[in-house]
Amino acid sequence: MSAEFDKLAKEEEPQDPLEGFIYKLAPKGSLTLFRLLRDEGRELTEDEIAEKLGASKNIVRKILYKLHDLNILVYRRMKEESTNWNTYYWKINWEGLSVSLIERKKEVLKKLKQRLAYESSNRVVYVCHKCGREYKFEEALANDFFCPICHIPLDYIDRTQQVILLEKYVRKLEEELADELRRIQSS
Length: 187
Ligand SMILES: [Zn+2]
What we know:
Pfam families: TFIIE_alpha. It comes from Fervidicoccus fontis. One of its GO terms (molecular function) is DNA binding. Keywords: DNA-binding, Transcription, Transcription regulation. InterPro entries: TF_E_archaea, TFE, TFIIE/TFIIEa_HTH, TFIIE_asu, TFIIEa/SarR/Rpc3_HTH_dom, WH-like_DNA-bd_sf, WH_DNA-bd_sf. The chain is an alpha+beta fold. The protein folds into two domains: 2-92, Winged helix-like DNA-binding domain superfamily/Winged helix DNA-binding domain (Arc Repressor Mutant, subunit A, Orthogonal Bundle), CATH 1.10.10; 102-186, no CATH class. Helices cover 59% and strands 14% of the residues. The protein has eight helices and six strands; from the N terminus they run αααβααββαββαβα. It has helices at 2-9, 17-25, 30-40, 46-53, 57-69, 94-121, 137-142, 160-186; strands spanning 44-45, 73-79, 86-92, 124-127, 134-135, 155-158. The strands form two sheets. The chain has a three-stranded antiparallel β-sheet with strand order 1-3-2. A three-stranded antiparallel β-sheet has the order 5-4-6. Helix 4 packs across helix 5 (57-69) and helix 6 (94-121) runs antiparallel to helix 8 (160-186). It starts with a helix and ends with a helix. Bound molecules: zinc ion (ZN). Zinc ion binds next to loops.
């Protein structure tokens, strides 16, 4: 069974942020299945998906339900009159996906801003390479530039370049988010 998962996942290399999001969260083989539904541009049944992917229904069903849990896919259930069986028609939950993507970006942005706040207020620090503790100039000076715990000399760190990079990245992400929110609200 896992060999079959591996086969499905062979070509999986995320090509854009949306694919990266699916690749990170969903099990192996998900991206292949997602691309099939995206490229077909219509609803597909489990049988059709299994056939097109050359995978067993069992595997396909597992991935489908996982993607459904993650809000990436939705299905429509239809009772076949002749057999009285239910057929499931699957498609991509585009609306839900953009919302999840935005939520995730917001999380990333929040963490980046926290990091930025920390690094800008600790732009220049002294660090002990043994225990990793950081000291501000006054603390380092008071300890003659030695780590008071490990008794070894402290290293000097200047994060100015890092802070500039982080600021740039935060701004870029904020712009992306604003664009996406506008797009969702206008659609
Ligand atoms: Zn130390």
